[in-house]
């Protein structure tokens, strides 16, 4: 993280030196000196920050990190005092002179602080040269990791559970199939048992007999190509009891690669590369592996999905190793913890405690075996209870559990500097929220952008790059996808329970964030990011908050917030303020005290109105009012020219909500000035028509949601949509059942539109929908389309989800052969006149089907038996005659759905029945 903080500051310094020369004035030489000195230290930091043991450099790293943070603070403070709107600068030198005179004290103070920082950087640089800190991993670290690999290689068969199925599958891939060289990659997070599994495959007699040459290489993070190539050659020659080639110890890569290739030619070989971290490692090794179509195989283990796929190139397989299922995890724990007891049975008095500990391990074999082994030596219930209650501290400090954290930390160490702060952001969320309750994907992305973590240029949007960051963390098996939308897009994510322990530990070590979880929580350092979890006592009295960048309030903290309005007056550098779900009814602070705020969330609070001072948040990028009672925003919101995401709506919770289903917001005239706005939801359209025309100026919009669309405004909306070339999601609702959606006038729809949601009656589907080649999801509610009106959808090349709710009044729904080629999800709900659904060879890739409250439908869709990829059929509140035809024993339609793994029926009380 020291490198991360340093790189972030270097980027800012470079920007200021190049772009803000006039603003810096006389401070520019000093800032340039600081930049140059920091760049000299950068290479050392990259090496030291990647090491597991800093060998005495920790204090140095901590000091440098704090300097980097302080520089960032001073730059922000400088911007606050000296930055001016662009139009002010055109008034020439006189305006600049008056401005400098007005802020002379601030300038003088800033100059002093910059000189002090310069002196601190020089001092640290001198100490680094004097002490010559080593940056390589210590012998102890290497031994621990070596012991872990050795233990995995020779684990007793009796201790293994859940390994038979993956072992047999991988063996089949090795000894069967085509004769060309193929690679098999075993991918999964650290501690899942990849090495153990592959060793059992490698040692299997069938594998030994099938291949004539065998070699096993542990790559690890600190490999060198020469050492590993020599090791392979040595194993191969030793296996046939031949003398190694002369001068092998002095050979470089150029000589070692042909030497190995020559040996392997015309042989059926298997080589295991255990624990590959980077693609370039494989790019070197593959040059030494000939393909003579002898049936040779390469077996790779890696934590990184992209590396596993890269190793395949044109041929091979990927085995994604998953955590153990709960029953298997429990069996493994009992085998290890209670091995001295008959049948390895868990004593009744330890049953609940044991289950809680196993639950924390979340199917990770390394953690299960390590914790069970430690607990097997504890005899009393008190000792077990103490271990459970202090697991976080034990993982950090108990040498017998050190292996768990070190294995996970390897993944953290391998992260590039730009991903480390993104990963550590999970430390902010309470464990039960980031582990059990997943974190929204889009929320993470907006927070990372607000923090300034995203490195991009003008050719790519920050949201897209941030999405790539998240996908990289997922690919590295460090972040898990918690919930997908049915059509495949990531909705929310989480981290493994033990990864969360590591994140909290690293966050504390790096002073990344501070969490106040219980009464009396202590704060010792400068706070950069703060989260409070159900704290009801006075907060942070007497604490220096001048460095605070982000504050999150979780739980019922109303008294804390309302009683400390003066708290926010001290947060001059605050960028993020998240008060989601806090039970507050009014804003507890003055917006003008937060000039750097970029992210503001009152989501699901009781706030009804925002003051005019909102316009002072000139740097605000995200304003989240979803779930609040705010229905109109002050005219001063037009000052927020950097606004990117504006959400202000709440869903009706009445038994009979209006057709448009949400309460949106009214905006003042002038919204066309929001040139950076990307998300606008939901805008109420029953207001001045001029605002509707202004929508066309929002050319960066990616999501637009409107409600109460009037017939007379349809043409203007279409005209605006034609100018939104970046739009990916569009939602429109009419105000009542007598108000038709008139959107036929759209001649050139947004080319990248992916999601289209209509709520309200349509005379027919607009013809332009057939041209939406990027459309992924289409949801129609209350459309009342006539029979045979869905034909224009059948040829959409990328449509994955089709939802029809009160959207079709025909008696027969016919899907023609060859239509909906990529559709994965079909949802039919409350189609009251529907008697028959006929598939006739359509939807060949359908995976999930929902049929809900279709009162006249008496049988499953004709042709459902041809849907070989259908995995789930969910039936909600369907007629008795429909369900009787599906019963397992007597239903005449049951054979049609017998190939579907999950067939479930839900009654009107949401009770579930397996069919």
For this structure, the CATH topology of one domain is Rossmann fold
Low-confidence stretches: 84-95, 134-148
Mean pLDDT over the full residue set: 84
Into which percentage range does the β-strand content fall?
5-15%
Largest sheet: 18 strands, mixed
| CATH architecture group name of one domain | 3-Layer(aba) Sandwich
Secondary structure tally: strands: 30
The CATH homologous superfamily of one domain is named P-loop containing nucleotide triphosphate hydrolases
Helix content: 25-40%
Question: Please, could you describe this protein's structure?
Answer:
This protein is of the alpha/beta class. Among the domains are: 2-135, no CATH class; 141-320, P-loop containing nucleotide triphosphate hydrolases (Rossmann fold), CATH 3.40.50; 326-406; 415-509, Winged helix-like DNA-binding domain superfamily/Winged helix DNA-binding domain (Arc Repressor Mutant, subunit A), CATH 1.10.10; 785-915. It has 31 helices and 30 strands. The strands form five sheets. The chain has an 18-stranded mixed sheet, covered by helices on one side. A five-stranded parallel sheet has the order 2-3-4-1-5, sandwiched between helices. A three-stranded antiparallel sheet has the order 6-8-7. Strand 7 (480-484) and strand 8 (490-494) form a beta hairpin. Helix 1 (2-19) packs antiparallel against helix 3, helix 1 packs parallel to helix 4 (58-82) and helix 3 packs parallel to helix 7 (104-131). The radius of gyration is 31 Å and the shape is globular. The two termini are 53 Å apart.
């Amino acid at each position: 993280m020291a490198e991360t903080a340093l790189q972030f500051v270097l980027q800012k310094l470079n920007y200021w030196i190049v772009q803000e020369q006039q603003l810096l004035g006389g401070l520019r030489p000093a800032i340039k000196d600081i930049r140059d000195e920091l760049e000299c230290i950068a290479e050392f930091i990259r090496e030291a920050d990647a090491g597991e043991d800093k060998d005495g450099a920790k204090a140095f790293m901590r000091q440098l990190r704090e300097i980097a943070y302080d520089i960032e603070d001073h730059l922000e403070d400088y911007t606050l005092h000296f930055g001016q709107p662009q139009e002010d600068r055109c008034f020439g030198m006189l305006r600049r002179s008056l401005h400098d005179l007005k802020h002379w004290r601030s300038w003088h103070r800033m100059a002093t602080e910059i000189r002090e920082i310069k002196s601190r950087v020089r001092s640290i640089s001198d100490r680094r040269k004097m002490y010559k800190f080593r940056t390589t991993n210590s012998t102890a670290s290497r031994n621990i990791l070596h012991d872990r690999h050795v233990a995995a290689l020779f684990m007793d068969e009796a201790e293994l559970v859940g390994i038979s199925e993956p072992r047999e599958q991988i063996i089949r891939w090795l000894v069967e199939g085509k004769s060309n060289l193929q690679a098999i990659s075993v991918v999964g997070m650290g501690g899942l048992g990849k090495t153990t599994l592959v060793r059992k495959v490698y040692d299997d007699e069938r594998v030994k007999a099938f291949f004539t040459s065998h070699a096993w290489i542990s790559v690890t993070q600190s490999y060198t190509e020469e050492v590993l190539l020599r090791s392979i050659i040595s194993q191969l020659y030793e296996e046939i009891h031949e003398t190694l080639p002369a001068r092998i110890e002095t050979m470089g890569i150029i000589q070692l690669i042909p030497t190995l290739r020559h040996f392997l030619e015309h042989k059926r070989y298997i080589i295991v590369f255990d624990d590959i971290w980077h693609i370039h490692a494989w790019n070197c090794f593959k040059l030494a592996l000939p393909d003579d179509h002898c049936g040779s195989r390469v077996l790779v283990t890696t934590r990184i999905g992209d590396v596993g796929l890269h190793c395949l190139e044109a041929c091979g397989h990927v085995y994604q190793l998953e955590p153990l299922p709960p029953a298997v995890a429990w069996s493994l724990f009992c085998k290890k913890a209670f091995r001295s007891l008959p049948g390895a049975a868990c004593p009744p008095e330890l049953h609940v405690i044991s289950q809680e500990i196993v639950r924390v391990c979340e199917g990770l074999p390394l953690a299960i075996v390590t914790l069970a082994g430690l607990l097997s030596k504890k005899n009393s219930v008190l000792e077990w209870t103490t271990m459970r209650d202090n697991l976080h501290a034990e993982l950090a400090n108990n040498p017998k559990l050190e292996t768990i954290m070190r294995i996970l930390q390897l993944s953290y160490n391998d992260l590039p500097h730009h991903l480390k702060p993104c990963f550590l952001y999970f430390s902010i969320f309470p464990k039960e929220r980031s582990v059990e309750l997943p974190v929204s994907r889009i929320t993470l992305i907006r927070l990372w952008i607000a923090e300034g973590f995203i490195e991009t240029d003008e050719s790519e949007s920050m949201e897209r790059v941030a999405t790539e960051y998240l996908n990289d963390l997922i690919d590295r098996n460090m972040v898990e996808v918690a919930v997908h939308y049915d059509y495949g897009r990531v909705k929310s994510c989480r981290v493994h329970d033990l990864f969360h322990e590591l994140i909290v530990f690293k966050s504390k070590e790096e002073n990344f964030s501070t969490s106040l979880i219980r009464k009396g929580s202590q704060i010792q350092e400068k706070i950069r990011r703060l989260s409070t979890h159900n704290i009801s006592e006075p907060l942070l009295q007497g604490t220096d908050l001048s460095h605070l960048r982000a504050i999150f309030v979780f739980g019922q903290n109303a008294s804390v917030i309302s009683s400390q309005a003066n708290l926010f007056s001290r947060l001059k550098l605050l960028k993020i303020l998240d008060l989601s779900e806090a039970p507050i009814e009014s804003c507890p602070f003055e917006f003008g005290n937060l000039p750097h705020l970029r992210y503001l969330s009152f989501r699901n609070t009781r706030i009804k109105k925002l003051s005019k001072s909102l316009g002072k948040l000139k740097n605000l990028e995200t304003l989240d009012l979803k779930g609040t009672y705010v229905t109109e925003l002050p005219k001063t919101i037009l000052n927020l020219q950097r606004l990117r995401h504006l959400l202000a709506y709440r869903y009706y919770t009445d038994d009979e909500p209006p057709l448009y289903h949400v309460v949106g917001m009214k905006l003042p005239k002038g919204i066309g000035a929001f040139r950076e706005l990307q998300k606008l939801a939901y805008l109420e359209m029953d207001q001045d028509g001029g605002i509707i025309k202004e929508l066309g100026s929002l050319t960066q919009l990616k999501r637009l949601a409107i409600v109460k669309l009037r017939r007379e405004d349809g043409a203007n909306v279409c005209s605006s949509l034609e100018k939104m070339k970046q739009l990916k999601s569009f939602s429109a609702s009419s105000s009542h059942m007598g108000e038709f959606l008139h959107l036929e006038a759209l001649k050139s729809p947004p080319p990248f539109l992916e999601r289209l949601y209509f709520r309200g009656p349509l005379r027919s589907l607009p013809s332009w929908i057939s041209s939406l080649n990027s459309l992924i999801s289409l949801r129609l509610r209350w459309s009342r389309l006539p029979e045979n009106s869905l034909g224009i959808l059948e040829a959409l090349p990328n449509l994955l989800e089709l939802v029809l709710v009160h959207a079709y009044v025909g008696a027969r729904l016919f899907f023609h052969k060859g239509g909906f080629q990529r559709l994965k999800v079909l949802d039919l709900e409350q189609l009251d006149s529907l008697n028959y659904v006929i598939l006739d060879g359509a939807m060949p890739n359908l995976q999930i089907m929902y049929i809900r409250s279709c009162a006249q439908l008496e049988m499953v869709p004709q042709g459902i038996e041809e849907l070989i990829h259908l995995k789930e059929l969910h039936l909600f509140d369907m007629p008795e005659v429909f369900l009787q035809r599906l019963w397992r024993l007597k239903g005449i339609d049951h054979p049609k759905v017998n190939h579907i793994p999950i067939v479930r029926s839900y009654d009107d009380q949401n009770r579930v029945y397996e069919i």
